[in-house]
Specification:
- With about 325 residues, this protein is mainly alpha-helical.
- It has one domain.
- Helices cover about 90% and strands about 0% of the residues.
- It has five helices and no strands.
- Helix 2 runs antiparallel to helix 4, helix 2 runs antiparallel to helix 5 and helix 4 packs parallel to helix 5.
- The longest helix is centred in the N-terminal third of the chain and has 128 residues.
- The two termini are about 35 Å apart.
- The C terminus is likely disordered.
Length: about 325
């Protein structure tokens, strides 16, 4: 197996070979005179003109290749800058969108907590209203079953009293009868007071129940309105979140593809750098993150390769001249191939 030589040693060998061939061709021209079909001076002038034209074409092609290499280098540098700028912009947009999503999630959590608290208050108030309704039902039942029959019984006593006054002439009227039976009423006073107090208590309780029921109804209506408003806001925020999610999904895919392309480009640059270092029997000293330094190294190696190509072109031109000198030319003065 042959060892891989560096580009510098290859360039030196090519130069030495070119000088040797040039000297050898000159010696042949001096030692062996060709047999000319036309005058030697004219043939030399035509050969010189032919060689000058070929040399001018080679130089022109070389200049074009050099200019193309410079233009491509600038284009590659511009593309690298644009790719880095695009990556930076995409990263900033991704951070902004991610912050917006986190903010929406935090707002959603706060709204969920508020809704849970409002539902808990609503359940508590509903429980209190149910208790008051149950109390009202019991009082209504007590009024219908106990108080109302007692009132009906009292009307019977009033009719009996009037009949008694009408039949008995000893009483002028009911008031007289009542005055006479005041002693009995005093005995029953405590019972009557208790009944009246109970009646007032029941009426007051009924009024309180009605008032509390009205307040509870208004409060429940207000809470229901607030709950409806919160649900509307929640649905709106949820729809906005879904829209943002739909917008961000293609952006995330594009960002991932661009990052993948950039990673592949950087990986290819690094592989090229490693290949050239291995070709030159050098230990790689640049890290993968040092992309600009790697590109500079690759550029220098490409320039050396172009220099080798230039020397190879010169060598081919010299060989062509040597063949012309050895074989001569036709009558037209054009060198035979």
């Amino acid at each position: 197996m042959f060892k891989k030589r560096s580009i510098a040693s290859l360039v030196a060998n090519v130069r030495a070979n070119s000088i040797f061939r040039r000297s050898k061709s000159q010696n042949k021209n001096y030692l062996k005179n060709p047999e000319w079909d036309v005058q030697p001076a004219d043939n030399i002038i035509m050969v010189k003109a032919w060689n000058d034209r070929e040399n001018a074409e080679v130089v022109e092609q070389h200049e074009k290749m050099r200019e193309e290499a410079i233009v491509k280098g600038k284009q590659n540098k511009k593309r690298t800058e644009e790719a880095r700028k695009m990556q930076k912009d995409l990263r900033e947009k991704f951070i902004e969108v991610n912050d917006f999503i986190n903010e929406c999630e935090q707002k959603e959590m706060i709204l969920d907590k508020k809704i849970a608290a409002e539902k808990e208050i609503h359940e508590k108030l509903q429980k209190e209203v149910d208790e008051y309704v149950e109390k009202t039902k019991k009082l209504t039942e007590y009024h219908e079953k106990t108080l109302k029959p007692n009132i009906e019984k009292g009307k019977v006593y009033e009719d009996v009293l009037q009949q008694l006054v009408d039949k008995m002439k000893i009483f002028k009227n009911k008031e007289d009868f009542l005055d006479r039976i005041e002693a009995l009423l005093l005995a029953q006073k405590e019972v009557s007071e208790n009944d009246e107090a109970s009646l007032k208590s029941v009426e007051k309780m009924q009024a309180d129940i009605v008032k509390i029921s009205n307040e509870a109804t208004l409060m429940i209506a207000g809470l229901e309105n607030q709950l409806i408003e919160i649900e509307k806001n929640f649905d709106k925020i949820k729809s906005d979140y879904l829209k943002v999610e739909n917008i961000l999904h293609p952006s995330k895919e594009i960002i991932a593809e661009k990052e993948k392309e950039i990673c592949m480009l950087l990986e290819q640059i690094h592989e090229t750098y490693l290949l050239l270092c291995h070709r030159n029997n050098e230990e790689p000293t640049l890290k993968r993150e040092q992309t600009e330094a790697q590109l500079d190294y690759i550029k220098r190696e490409i320039e050396k390769i172009l220099e080798v190509i230039e020397l190879a072109d010169e060598m081919m031109a010299l060989e062509t001249r040597s063949d012309i000198a050895e074989h001569g030319s036709g009558k037209s003065g054009i060198p035979r191939k």
